[in-house]
Amino acid sequence: MASSVEPARNAAPVTSAPSSAGTLFTAADVARVIDRMTHQLIERAASADPDSPDGGLSGLVLIGIPTRGAPLARRLAARIEAFSGVPVDVGTVDITLYRDDLRLRGVRALEPTMLPDAGIDGRVVVLVDDVLFSGRSVRAALDALRDLGRPRAVRLAVLVDRGHRELPIRADYVGKNVPTSRAQQVKVHLSEIDGSDAVLVTEDGVRGESQQ
Amino acid sequence: MTYLIRGVRPYGGDAADIVIKDGRITTIGEHLSVPGAEVVDADGLIALPGLVDLHTHLREPGREDAETVETGSRAAALGGFTAVHAMANTDPVADTAGVVEQVWRLGRQAGLVDVVPVGAVTVGLRGERLAELGAMADSAARVRVFSDDGSCVSDPALMRRALEYVKAFDGVVAQHAEEPRLTAGAQMHEGDRSARLGLTGWPAAAEEAIIARDVLLAGHVGARLHICHVSTAGSVEILRWAKARGVRVTAEVTPHHLLLTDACAEGYDPVFKVNPPLRTDADVEAVRLGLADGTIDAVATDHAPHAVEDKESEWAQARPGMLGLEQALSVVVETMVETGLLDWQGVADRMSVQPATIGRLAEHGRPLAPGEPANLLVLDPAARAVVDPATLASRSRNSPYAGRELPGRVVATFLRGDATVLDGKAVR
Amino acid sequence: MKRHLLEAADLDRADATLVLDTAAQIDAALAGREVKKLPTLRGRTVVNLFYEDSTRTRISFELAAKRLSADVINFSAKGSSVSKGESLKDTALTLEAMGSDAIVVRHSASGAPHRLANWVRGSVVNAGDGTHEHPTQALLDAYTIRQRLGRLEGVRVGIVGDVLHSRVARSNVSLLHTLGAEVTVVAPPTLLPVGVGSWPVEVSYDLDAVLPKVDVVMMLRVQAERMNASFFPSAREYSRRYGLDAPRMGTLADGAIVMHPGPMNRGMEIAAEVADSVRSTIVEQVANGVSVRMAVLYLLLGGNEPA
Description:
The complex is a heterotrimer of chains A (212), B (428) and C (307).
Chain A: E1 22-25, H1 27-48, E2 60-64, H2 69-84, E3 89-92, H3 102-105, E4 124-132, H4 136-148, E5 153-161, E6 173-177, E7 185-189, H5 191-194, E8 198-202
Helix pairs in contact in A: 1-2
Chain B: E1 3-10, E2 16-21, E3 24-29, E4 38-41, E5 46-49, E6 51-56, H1 69-78, E7 81-86, H2 97-110, E8 114-117, H3 133-138, E9 145-146, H4 156-165, E10 172-175, E11 188-189, H5 192-197, E12 201-202, H6 204-221, E13 225-227, H7 233-244, E14 249-253, H8 255-259, H9 281-292, E15 298-299, H10 328-337, H11 344-359, E16 376-386, E17 405-415, E18 418-422, E19 425-426
Parallel strand pairs in B: 1-4, 1-5, 6-7, 7-8, 9-10, 10-13, 11-12, 13-14, 14-15
Antiparallel strand pairs in B: 1-2, 2-3, 5-16, 16-17, 17-18, 18-19
Helix pairs in contact in B: 1-2, 4-6, 6-7, 7-9
Chain C: H1 13-30, E1 45-50, H2 55-67, E2 71-76, H3 88-97, E3 102-107, H4 112-119, E4 123-129, H5 135-149, E5 156-160, H6 167-178, E6 182-186, E7 202-204, H7 207-210, E8 216-219, H8 225-228, H9 235-242, H10 246-249, E9 257-259, H11 272-275, H12 282-301
Parallel strand pairs in C: 1-2, 1-3, 3-4, 5-6, 5-8, 6-7, 8-9
Helix pairs in contact in C: 1-5, 1-12, 2-12, 3-4, 5-6, 5-12
């Protein structure tokens, strides 16, 4: 299984084609990818704010999009603190009430929205999600953020970008680009929710941003 | 016209041929041959005396949009009836000789059943003073049954006077037993379901209290009393007690009270709103047994047509009442014959003989025998059909049996020797 | 979830819990926000069809729908075609033709929302029908109890007053039973329905005996006109036997709460000092009503194709 991780800035397509069904990331791959993304987050925070004593990290807020974006955001924050010694604020934004596909997919249970006490005004928000697909979840999250405050900037971090965008949205931090067909399903497993870490690709998937 | 009904089983007994001529049954025998007669092939079917309904609302005059004497007569004929008593709560109320004669004449014109007008007991059904009962009795309509049906004659002194007064012409007061102070705003049977559905309850005691009072009054003055649409187990007990004491009381039960319960109110479809209301399973069981043992003398339809707008509404706003003429016999077959509670002789007794006797109709409720008036029906007891209100002859559509499969089909009906129904269709 | 919310029994335990959880999430999501509006029901039309005056309930539903960005039409029976004799069915078909996705109906006739549901394709929400039910009131009551006491399972609730004529009581008995609470209804026997024995409740005529044993006491509004129909001899006697005053409140267990669906008759079924005490949840109930109704509208409308 290929485990090369492409930085988001690198526009070159990933060479590894996914097998028809199977494991794309093992648990070790997931950990390695998260560490890679962590370093990118730290580097970019520092380069954006070179004079800051904490490397620009105190201005950062990681906001997970439930379900699996939430633990991903917490993991990234923990790794940032481990590498840099600086604690980073974490939160979640539930996008259910901002979706534009209610009529197609019906209702689902709401997940919590929790912002850090310091809020998001004037800070750099990094939205965190597991899979980037059509871009509609991210659009919904952007709409939700707008009602919650006014960040200085909003970035996007995803574990897997599987293509097939339906909106002009791209991620700033990508764990891995995975070309897929629409019929395929990309499923991220995280130990907090699923008991173990893995990323799977299956053929018979219903079309979805990520399966929640 | 001469008819030869071939292979029919009178009262469900052995097959025979029946010859009808000049308004009478002339011969009953085997393998008859009558030149020129119209043959009705009735192999395996059952012949019964024409049914008599003590309780029909024909709505004319006043609500011809809901029913007319003619459409109601056609519905009656299709149900196997040869006589129906037309209730007095028309507009104007049938409380004078003029109105009852009008209804009677309309019935003659339609010519499908004998329409026997019921006279109001009190002027305008208001329960205040007696209508001209004698004038109605002496009119061409020859009224013998008097009722304020729809309203109860609740004033005990007035009820006593009415019972006494009609003795002069062998009349009978048919009481709508409902103590109005106990049923203000009532919407359905008072019990577990009304409590949950939030509909004001119509307590069984409101019916039973009036029946108890009136059997005592009738016994006291030695008058005939008839109780309309008995609906509760308690009413059956009181009647049984009164009859045992020799009170001259008779009673009727409707097809819907033999079949349906207050469970029908779930969903709030006002087609099931009726007065008295549908009761419990125990009440249904009790009225069936009461009809079987003769405590209840007769089945009467309380056929109550209502225009669509009077039923397609909120439950509380809807008018009470349901159609009954066309399905009455089928419901009796289902609830009384197929359960073994009545045989065909019993059906003839409760649906023809007893109601004719109570209404003092000399030409109806007679036996199927040579020389008797040819008022009879031919029934296919094996046929089963799903009731479709759109196909009913009534001008209204408020059948509580819509979508329900019921047994028995009236194939032919004869009124004084003339076919009013042949091949299951009204002749006109 | 069913398409309509006509009575509390339309919700099984999972559905009812989903409504309460959704309301809690909405509450949390909107807490402290300046923009108290969500785009969820943009382009949907909610009609408030009110045949009875009830400003409180109508405003609560209106606010709920507007916070979800639905278009709201208030159709009051007064001064409309209804007062000119238009039937409920014709009104329903008219609203349907105008493209309503949900009809919130308040009506004096029990079962009117059930009838309406037969005639329209959109969702019907019962906002109180006659003496039958008022399911969103029961949901907001359950939500309030859970918020204050942290649970519903095993919570002992006394419902006190005119149970016979109360749609609030019927919905609460049904919903609280579904959610595992233990309900006792307390009233003079004249104000209990004949069929109350078939309800999943204890029945008591003695308020003083019940108060020390409950976690929640829910006082129902008693209308003075019932007095004229001899349901009880006088307002004073009613108040003395079944009113909740300060000394009676003192017999409640620590932490027990006092609820009232409003509008209150202060001095009749509830004393002013009780209504204004820390045990009283009356103001919270009003606030929670909006969140619960948002949850109901979201769950009923969210998944349906537009009409």
